[in-house]
Amino acid sequence: MRAPLSWLREYADLPAGVTGRDLADRLIAAGLEVESVEQPGAEISGDVRIGRVLAFTDEEHSNGKTIRWTTVDVGEQQPRGIVCGALNFAEGDLVVVALPGATLPGGFEIAALTTYGHVSDGMICSARELGLGDDHQGILVIAPTHQGFATTRDASSHTVDVGADAVALLRLRDEVLDIAVTPDRGYALSIRGVAREAATAYDVAFRDPADVDPLPEARDGHPGVIDDPTAADRLVLRTVTGLDPDAPSPLELQHRLLLSGMRPVSLAVDVTNYVMLEMGQPLHAFDRTRLDGPIVVRRARPGERLETLDHVTRDLDPEDVLITDGTSPVGLAGTMGGTTTEIHENSTDLVIEAAHFSPTAVARMSRRHKLFSEASKRFERGVDPELPPAASARAVHLLETLGGATHVGSTEVNLPRRERHISVAAGRPARTAGMPIPGGQVVAYLQAVGCRVDGSPDGLLTVTPPSWRPDLAQPADLDEEVIRLAGYDRIPAVLPQAPPGPGLSSEQRARRRVGQALAYAGYVEAPTYPFLSPGIWDLLGADPDDVRRSALRLANPLSDEEPDLRTALLPGLLLALRRNERRGMHDVGLFELGNVYLPRLGAAPVPRPNVTGRPTNEELAALDDALPDQPWHVASVAAGQWEAAGWWGPGRPVTWSDAVEAAHTVARAAGVELDVRRGALAPWHPGRCAELMLGGEVVGHAGELRPRSVAALGLPERTVAMELDLTAVLDQGTAELTAPRVSTFPVATQDVALVVADDVPAAEVAQALHDGAGELLESVRLFDVYRGEQLGEGADNVRSLAYSLRFRAPDRTLTVEEVSAARTRAVEEAARRTGAVQRGG
Predict the structure, then answer these.
(1) From CA 635, how far away is CA 483, in angstroms rounded?
(2) Which member of 257, 639, 793, 831 lies 3.0 to 4.6 Å from 716 by CB, making a disulfide possible if both were Cys?
(3) What phi, psi does 526 have (nearest 5°)?
């Protein structure tokens, strides 16, 4: 909302010295968002006067251009000679003259110049050169009687004197406050609303522009009907005839429209726009001769279409609210009119429509058609339902005064509305703010914003919000009104004392250990949004019956493209990896810890408890039962080089084993050991997917992603990933980890090479060695994989796995016999469980 300061002063008795910036500071302190204060006309300086054309001579020059050599009286002893290129004035006309030394908008400096054989001692100005609009077809001609239309309901006029200050007469200098109006303060989308806030901020008198003289009784009004009470509850129609279609809008009116961000069009349109800006009530003017029947407000019917004023033909939805002339649509209610009944250059008989439409219906309709107007912006935030009679009467008065129109009749439909009452304790705002606010002051603040307050300032108050404040619906809203007027800057800054507590829970400490372990391993934490597109699972190649596709859908998602709650972390993390890759980060390792949301089979619908009080225990239990399971998961993704190349040698690219090692890192931080076996689950490569087991249950997967999924998502080649059910891992883990005991006795190392079939996972062989060796085995590590002809017959289907076995006893130095026996048991167990044959043995 752009609010000129001069316009605000007409309804709020602001002190004379208050500037736009002073007022902005007060309004910001009161809770309005003033984004900027502009100063149109501030560039105008020097002598800019009203002059009278005494005489002129038209001269045609060799270049084909005709100019006028004029003599202009500017209130000095001698008239001035001025060259003018415009021809739209006559002798005796009043014009605006910028004398030498003056500066006009845009930094245009005026000087006495010799041109077309004459010394031009100044410049006769057009409207655009003065910042009054875009008209540059001719110079601005001032009426000899300047008519005021805004301050009073009875048009006043005064004679314009030659030599008068044109800047003051035309109000060329002003200040404009640009206010970002939040959805709960729709009343501030008007001069009326902002002026009321300004008057309250300075504790000065406020004159309501809605206090309009009633129109005289007249019976020739256009009929109107509200067919759907859910769409509108008030409709006012004013019929005027005899409007002079050539009557111009006064300069002051046009200038205010321009300062407020609207373009002047014609008198009828300008008046409706002016009243909308002044009061906040959108109006629409119909050409009465183009209406085929009574005005009817109803919902759209199947198959109906409407060409709106932007010349777009729209297919209407059954939920759309229409204004019709009894047979066909003539406008989208509260949004935009139709072309069939629009005012044209010869319109003389008008029907002015003012209504109170459903905010929800208008908001949904404007979004459905992607059609946002000044009217819809106001209706969807809530317009004062008491305004239609006053705003339409104000428009009629202006049309009568400025265009010679005659009011011939009115029609009003006013459906009953329920009055709102809010009970609140007088001391509640003080408790909410944590500062003293006397009960009497609470009553005064509520009355200042227009509320009717009944009750004792020391007890319970019954507050009736004003009609223009639909946002005041509960005690908390009244608290906000009182506190903002008392001053947000008065609220004390008190650091709350943290109550004594046990600190982090064991589960929280375990999750923190997991995150730290992955960070120490070289991964960077990258939290992602918990929303997913259903189509992501098609790109990842998930089976149609994959349980991860069964997701909860949000009723009001942030984005229509991602309406589902995630059932896994991996999709979001892979998209984060892609963003990094596209921004030049080619060697990336990311991880995330977070909840996933798994629907419960057969869960009851989510109940909606009453918000007027605390939910009952039964309601809380029902809410808990309706919630999805929300286990914690941990996931990691990596691509590019895991070890960079340098003077020390070549780098090492990321491989599937790095993803498996990330899972082991999580397990060690949780105090458990994972079993690893061959797996198959999209989006992992069927031959490079590890299934992660714990206690006989699958808790996750790790490995390299399959090329088809990598290509579908635009990921780097050979991307690897891991995801674990962290809740399941921590349930079997150790709550508190203790440092391992370090033995002072020497370690004994034995290497063993085993030949196994290609389809035997290396992890199974390592587990068999571990189980067979017994408690003396400290660690087992795969350090070499060999394939080749030296493996003998069937070499194409087998491979050699070389493991390093470390033995150590906590209380003694092991003998050669003990180490050999443990090694033999390990090899025998591996042979029994995996068919391994010791190479060279």
Answers:
(1) 46
(2) 639
(3) -140, 85
